[in-house]
Amino acid sequence: MVRAAIAGVGMVPFAKMREKSLADIGWPAVKAAIADAGIEPKALQACYCGTSLGGMMAGQRILGRMGLTGIPVTNIENACSSSSSALAQAVLAVRAGKYEAVLVVGAEKLTKFGGGTLPLEKEDWEVSQGLVMPALYAMRAKRYMHEYGLTELQLAKVSVKNRKNGALNPDAQYRQAVTVEDVLGSRMIAEPFTLLQCCPTGDGAAALVVTSEKLARKLRSDPVFVAASELTSGRFTAGFRDMTTPEITVRGAAEAYEEAGLGPEDIDVAEVHDAFSIAELIYYDAFGFSKKGEAGALIDSGATEIGGRVAVNPSGGLISKGHPIGATGAAQVVEITRQLRGECGPRQVPGAKVGLAHATGGGISGFDHGACAIHILTR
Amino acid sequence: MVRAAIAGVGMVPFAKMREKSLADIGWPAVKAAIADAGIEPKALQACYCGTSLGGMMAGQRILGRMGLTGIPVTNIENACSSSSSALAQAVLAVRAGKYEAVLVVGAEKLTKFGGGTLPLEKEDWEVSQGLVMPALYAMRAKRYMHEYGLTELQLAKVSVKNRKNGALNPDAQYRQAVTVEDVLGSRMIAEPFTLLQCCPTGDGAAALVVTSEKLARKLRSDPVFVAASELTSGRFTAGFRDMTTPEITVRGAAEAYEEAGLGPEDIDVAEVHDAFSIAELIYYDAFGFSKKGEAGALIDSGATEIGGRVAVNPSGGLISKGHPIGATGAAQVVEITRQLRGECGPRQVPGAKVGLAHATGGGISGFDHGACAIHILTR
Fold first, then answer.
1. Residues B131 and B259 in one domain
2. Keywords of this protein's UniProt record, alphabetized (chains A, B) (predicted)?
3. What domain range includes position A310?
4. Nearest to A233 among B60, B95, B96 (CB)
5. Nearest residue, CB atoms, A365 vs list B53, B61, B361
């Protein structure tokens, strides 16, 4: 099997870009990734484009802006893990020897398609009963607090950490550090979540050039390698009255660790799917950064800050960097790649050698219809 | 490289199913394909779901109805070639040895999402100027008539042939044969197309079980093999004032023939993308069934009827079987598989050994942003 590498990365700063089209937003990210890889555009043999609400032929429209046409372009929808699912396909194709160089792009424009315009099917009974994402995660938070004594202060610390990190990231949608008082004092959205504990609505794009190890070593001296690429489907809860164990991520994490031959103790830096403050904490447990129920103690310890044992969401995460759905997975890999290359300046995780990216989505039409993509990267 | 096979196929009759959800429509096709393959559902290791307008997590919603969860599910959007692009990914994965058995499902519900509700981006200048699909194809038809002397009668014969075939297909949306007079006398849509020369709006689903040759031979005595699987992007026209040469399909056809080591003379049966009457004729030329400009003579000769040299659209094609966008590519492969197995009863193509399926899409936001998937199957 060919070893797959990330030879180039690029993204546009996440922001609300109401006047731009999806292609306007997407192509500069592609251009940046191609430039970063130092690859000839015509050497790209295929493209996988992740978008959830970008409409028909999103990848073709983005590449069309750059005159990149002819190659196979496959658009992939997997909710919040759309572009990490696209990466999984690219990795599969490179490992198989089908292509030597593949472009992955994730793009989304939520300022246009978001805001309650999602089509609801008749089986969307959860949403019709009020179980929108903030409500679903709020119940998970309440349950975690009830079961394990998690406090509102510990929840708020997730936002404080991620906004602090995001303030150091020029690509982040929100670049202002906040205090625990700011977080707890912001508007209530769904108890216990205040506004600053929820990821924002925004637009953005991120792109990756995925190549064989051989080509990557020709292109640059510091490629990053894909040690694990796992996509799973499943449930966000483990079963009746256990809404604090995301079955889909727990299983995906075990598969990813096995594939990489690594464990939680090996991860130096991780970008995990912190759509809401509780989510990051639940994923501490799911990835084995903490024992089940001890995520509150882990955030208290500072171990997940930059400089701690395992830096989580140094980019600012979804809460601070933003969450344009289809762009998120690729943007996480942009950050992990830059961290492993040591390019992150003031938010650099010292000595980072192994990184993990985790994007998980679904729930609009059933919280048991989820997708989860996990990648482990090494330098 | 592992040889990929189609071990099972299934579909639901295409129809307007306003009261059903996408999952309601999709799961019976999956069930039928699994039963046809005689495979244990738990032996399926991954799923690729093609849908263009089906919304988030379409595949997960469909499989969720059957309790099929846990496996990687990847939703693929490539307009009219969504589920044939999904098949291309499944074939890639099986050939690479990543999976032994993969489910492909295509599903669409146009009665809900069609009807002018497609989101238009600001770069959709073609559509905003009136260049909707019927108008685009109408201009290609007019140009072909001008350049090569194609007649309205020859155009009408495509619909007569395909409706005759569809009348013999229990899965077709329209099962009434029509005469040339019926076709030419039906309501004008976009000159020269009358209503019966345009594919209808409808809903539907089709599914395929794609496996390694080894597993397919264990499951059944008559598997069908994938000799070529090509996905391309590109233009529907060859350049300035040449709108009768679909560059994307011409190039894809050459790639597919090369991959299979076969030529147009080897194809016994083909399902081609007859969204409008002219489309089938243009594709006769593109696939080399006729010399450039001679498609009218080919339809006159009867060579593309069942029993002719190369039977085209024995299922009834998009015009008669229907065209629920994301389901179309998989449904074409259902038909070719059944033809190669000799299961088609009154519409059986005698002695069919090599079949071709062709789905091409895009154009909603630029006719130069197309996708085209071509598969050649052999028994």
1. yes
2. Lipid transport, Lipid-binding, Transferase, Transport
3. 125-199+225-378
4. B60
5. B61
Question: Of A170, A189, A224, which residue sits at a domain end?
Answer: A224
> 10 Å Cβ neighbour count for B58?
32
Statement to judge: residues B272 and B194 lie in one domain: yes
Q: What is the DSSP letter of B347?
A: G
- Contacts across the A-B interface (CB distance below 8 Å): 179
The number of folded domains in chain A is: 2
Contact B212, B3 (CB under 8 A): yes
Does residue B282 sit in the same domain as residue B367?
Answer: yes
> Tens digit of pLDDT for each residue in A245-288?
998 999 999 999 999 999 999 999 999 999 999 999 999 999 99
Q: Does any domain span residue B50?
A: yes
Helix (H) or strand (E) run with residue A273 in it = none
Of the candidates B336, B359, B358, the residue with the CA atom closest to the CA atom of residue B349: B336
DSSP 8-state code for residue B126: H
- Whether residue A303 is contained in a domain is answered as yes
Task: For A190-227, write each residue's pLDDT tens digit.
Answer: 999 999 999 999 999 999 999 999 999 999 999 999 99
Strands (DSSP E) along chain B, which ranges? Answer: 4-11, 46-50, 73-77, 101-109, 188-190, 193-194, 203-212, 224-234, 269-271, 311-312, 354-361, 370-378
Q: Are A28 and A137 in the same domain?
A: no
CB contact under 8 A, B368 and A55: no
Q: Tokens 């264990």 map to which residue?
A: B218
> Catalytic: which of B47, B80, B198, B199?
B80
Q: Is A120 domain-assigned?
A: no
The answer to whether residues B104 and B168 belong to one domain is no
Does residue B362 sit in the same domain as residue B246? yes
Residue B121 lies in a domain: no
- Catalytic residue status for B80: yes
Residue B114 confidence class, pLDDT cut points 50, 70, 90? very low
What is the CATH classification number for the domain harbouring A349? 3.40.47.10
Q: Which of A47, A80, A199, A372 is catalytic?
A: A80
**Are B56 and A89 a contacting pair at CB < 8 A?**
no
Least CB-CB distance to B92: which of A53, A85, A98?
Answer: A98
What ranges in chain A are assigned the alpha helix state H? 22-37, 58-64, 82-95, 110-113, 125-128, 133-148, 152-166, 180-185, 213-219, 247-260, 277-286, 295-301, 317-320, 325-341
Q: Model ipTM?
A: 0.93
From B273, B225, B276, B275, select the one nearest B252 (Cα to Cα). Answer: B273
A139 in the same domain as A90 = no
Of B375, B351, B92, the residue nearest B226 (C-alpha):
B375
Instruction: Clarify whether residues A97 and A138 are in a common domain.
Output: no
Q: How far is CA A184 from CA A144, A178, A187, A297, A298, in A?
A: 18, 10, 8, 19, 20
